[in-house]
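Morning. Coffee machine broken again, so started the prediction first thing and wrote up yesterday's gels while waiting. Chain of 82 residues, entered below exactly as on the submission form.
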Amino acid sequence: MGLMHETQRRIGETIQYADNAIDALKDADALVLVTEWSEFRHVDPDEIKAHLKSPIVIDGRNIFDATRLRAGGFTYYGIGIS
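Came back before lunch.
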């Protein structure tokens, strides 16, 4: 049983689920990243921006390049980064 199915079993339908990283962004106000999963490390910033309502990233694992995202028009907050 995969992680998603186990989460659904334990939590149920009180949260929304997505099949992949990009689907999770659709119609979201911001991206709050709290995992180091490799799936999230390789998402194109332009694709992230295209799916968010506002280009805001809160990076709890500091996996994104802050300078690159800020230069690309994002409001970027990295935990422990000024």
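Residues 15 and 63 are 24 Å apart (CA to CA). Going to sketch it on the whiteboard this afternoon.
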